[in-house]
Amino acid sequence: MKVFKWSELTWEEIREYLTEGAVALLPVGSVEQHGPHLPVGTDFIVAEAVAELAAKEVIEGGVKALLLPTITYGLSSMWVAYPGTVTLRTETFLNLIKDVLKSVIKAGGEKVVVVNGHAGNSDALRVACRDAVEEVGRGEVAVLSVWELCGELINEVFQTKFFHACEVETSLMLALKRRLKHPLRPGGEIFRKYGDRWHSLDLTVRPKAYVYRPESKGMHGPGSFGRPDLASAEKGFRLLECVVTSLADFIKEFVEGKA
């Protein structure tokens, strides 16, 4: 099933699809270090792949969908000590997301789903999405994080919790047939020492308290964490299927006004 990519259509085709009620999907990621074995584009690679696969699934179900060009840069100040990380300022990122969303809404896109692949973008994305619809005065924008869609499956399938360049993230990249840059080996220890009550690394546990400390001044081991050496494509395929199905289910309900 062909996914209609915004960048490959003419303005007349876009107008036609939006007039027919097509939902627009906007993948957002980051360019940041992901340890010695994953590329710095991991987050936007994941967001784009998941968004495109979910678009195919909803199109097969009769929902019209358009895939916007991926926003590759995000908020990655916590990793700037590692060469290769490229980060935007918060105000730049906020304005970028808002401007894109406002343009889509003004063009006739009444429903937009932002698919986020980088946890560090989450706070700003929620603000930008809310402000965009308020400033235009119409439209609906939803934002979802890839990594929060299947917490239960992560607990079932993986031996370690999700963090960064870990078993979970590495497995998903293997499922996407991304070649690793370095043989897998254990990562560093989790350097944010959260208690299980306030911020468990179990994605199904609440409440989540977010504590911020300066992290950009130095490196934290190899840049990968937990046990990426336990990753496998088989685990990644199970997670990918769950994430894509969950996102597609949300898109369908969102379009139908049930979400």
Number of helix segments?
Answer: 8
Question: What is the element string, with H for helices and E for strands?
Answer: EHEHEHEHEHHHH
In percent, how helical is the residue content? 25-40%
Query: What ranges have pLDDT less than 50 throughout 5 or more consecutive residues?
Result: none
Mean pLDDT equals 94
Give the overall shape: globular
Give me the side-by-side strand order of the main sheet.
Answer: 1-3-2-4-5
Give the biggest beta sheet: 5 strands, parallel
Distance N terminus to C terminus? 25 Å
Summarize the structure in words.
This protein is α/β, with parallel strands linked by helices. Helices cover 40% and strands 9% of the residues. It has 8 helices and 5 strands. The protein has helices spanning 11-19, 42-60, 90-106, 122-136, 151-157, 167-175, 196-199, 233-255, and strands spanning 4-5, 23-28, 65-67, 111-116, 140-145. The chain has a 5-stranded parallel beta sheet with strand order 1-3-2-4-5, sandwiched between helices. Helix 2 links the parallel strand 2 (23-28) and strand 3 (65-67). The longest helix has 23 residues, at 233-255. The chain is globular and about 50 Å long. The two termini are 25 Å apart. The mean pLDDT is 94.
